[in-house]
Each structure stands twice: as C-alpha cells, then as structure tokens.
Amino acid sequence: MSEINNIYQKELEYLEDGIKNSTNPYHTFTLSSLNGKSPESRTVVLRGVSFNPLRIYFNADYRSPKIRELTKNDACSALFYDKSRKVQLRFKCKALLHYQNDIAKEIWNNTALQSRKCYMGPHPPSKVLNEWHPNIPLEYTKTDPDEEHSKEGYINFIHVELEIIQADLLQLHHDGHKRFKVTNENKLFFVSP
C-alpha cells in the first residue's frame, strides 16, 4: 500500500502546484453538476487546495447556472487529467458555497484586478444575446479596472469549496493500468482499472 500512497501524495503535490502554475494540466479541471436529472460539465480554474480533510476551491459568477445547480444539489464531481503523464484524478464532492460572507470577502480581497473584471459583466453567464459581447464593461477590454470600480463585481462573486468525499486515481500504462480509490478518511484501496 505504500506504493499507492506515494502515487497519491505525488498527485496531491501536482494538484497544489496547479494553483499558480498555469502550464500544469491540473490548473483547470472539469466540474460536473446536476441540472435536474441531466449532468452538466464545464471547465473551471483551480484556485486553492487544502489538506486533512482534502478540499479544492474555485471561483465563479454567482449568476451562473452551475451555482444554481450546486445550490439545489451540492453533489458534484471534479475531473483532472494530465495527458503527458496519462493520469486521471476524479473526485466525488460536496459543494459548499461562500457568497457575501467573510470567506468570500477574504478571497475577493486577494483577487487580482484583471480577474475581478470578469465579475463585472452586465449579463449573467449563459444568457442568450442578440450579438456578441465580451461580458465585461467595455471600458475594461484593454485594461483593468481600478480598485474602486472593481468592487462593482463583488456582488457577482462566489467562492466554491469542494469537500472531497472520495478520490479515484487512474494511471494508464500499456503494461497494465493502476487504479485505486481514497476515502475521505484517507483509506486507500486498489480497484480494477
């Protein structure tokens, strides 16, 4: 079991590196949620990781469909894949939403101005438009807002915490794949690939 524990610890290190390293394939991941009975998937940016218990974090626009879905059903999954290393990391998760609270405010205060402008859009994400619009204030298409104007985006900002219920790691290899699961109590066990 020490072998899979070492593999898992290495993947957690890659995950942590993905927060700031945009060339790391774990910098973005696929988040899946339920829209009624239909699954919905989209790519989000990894913004944080914490350990014991394992949690991952991302930011979103409060008006987005994914937030409505996670409000109705907090069960979701996160999928990371590193094509060059042929490693898939899947998480079953429970979403905790931080909106207009101390945690959201702290994250917002540490968010770069260039990122804040993404929450200043006049249209809710996924709204049907008659013509293309960048969904940021037009005066900021080539520049970032100043600190004062960027505060207008806070009303649309939400920080999402994903509590990991179970991890499923798969290493692909032509001589035989390795797959194992990790419970939220850090119990590791092999499963057939």
Q: What's the overall geometry? A: elongated
Number of domains: 1
Q: Helix count? A: 5
Q: Report the β-strand fraction as a percent range.
A: 35-45%
Low-confidence stretches: none
The CATH topology comes to: Pnp Oxidase, Chain A
Q: What class would the helix/strand composition place it in?
A: alpha+beta
Architecture per CATH nomenclature, i.e. the level-2 architecture: Roll
Whole-angstrom Rg: 18 Å
CATH homologous superfamily label: Electron Transport, Fmn-binding Protein, Chain A
Distance between the termini: 17 Å
Q: Biggest sheet, open or closed, and with what strands and sense?
A: 9 strands, antiparallel
Q: Tell me the name of the CATH class.
A: Mainly Beta
Order of helices and strands: HEEEEHEEHHHEEE
| Arithmetic mean of pLDDT | 96
Helix content: 10-25%
Give me the count of strands. Answer: 9
Write a structural description.
By secondary structure, this protein is of the alpha+beta class. The protein has one domain: Electron Transport, Fmn-binding Protein, Chain A (Pnp Oxidase, Chain A), CATH 2.30.110.10. The chain contains 5 helices and 9 strands; from the N terminus they run H-E-E-E-E-H-E-E-H-H-H-E-E-E. Strands 1, 2, 3, 4, 5, 6, 7, 8 and 9 form a 9-stranded antiparallel β-sheet that branches. A hairpin with a 6-residue loop joins strand 7 and strand 8.
